[in-house]
Amino acid sequence: MQGLSCGTSRIVGCRFSVYPMTDNFVDVIKGALKEVDTSKVWQHTDDVSTCIRGRSEHVFDVTKAIFIHAAKTGVHVVFNGTFSIGCPGDSEADTYMSEDDHRLNEEGSINEKVEVASQFALYPLNNPDYMQVIADQKEVADKHGTFTKGVHYASRLDGDTNDVFKTLEEAFVNASSTNKHSHVTMTAAISANSPSKKDK
What we know:
Number of strands: 8
Shape: globular
Oligomer: single chain
Largest sheet: 8 strands, antiparallel
Distance between the termini: 47 Å
Radius of gyration: 16 Å
Order of helices and strands: EHEEHEHEHEEHE
Helix content: 25-40%
């Protein structure tokens, strides 16, 4: 039975789903997966979502690449994901923490220019200064030129996919660095190629 104390591996996980708004959504998803190298993360997919786990840089590298390769088809694609670090008892497959820091998909992702709209929310759990931790991440978004505005229960980001994912990753890492035993989660909804008028 797993204990209720946080593990020490600091493994990062993300449970996510990608939704291409097209009749051939299966082809879009499978095509994206074929182009993405997931060898540096633990991965499991079921009928609802996919979970990947490993070092922070590889989790963000893989999620960004899957989304970009789906979105570059031009169809309306939505990514919904929950990132987590420090979850109590989360140590399965922590051998992936021994991977080096080279991002396997960055070269392919950085050359794709896909404009997105995103809403994300940070949850620094059991942190009495959580509001300040969250507020500090606005400066990260400002630095990357992605912050648009605060909305109810989230912050709005707009811009190139690479810049938005840089913002998400840096904000997540910053929040999780406030305490070496902290449990932090972050939700992100990202949309590309939407036919709807942007509501900024």
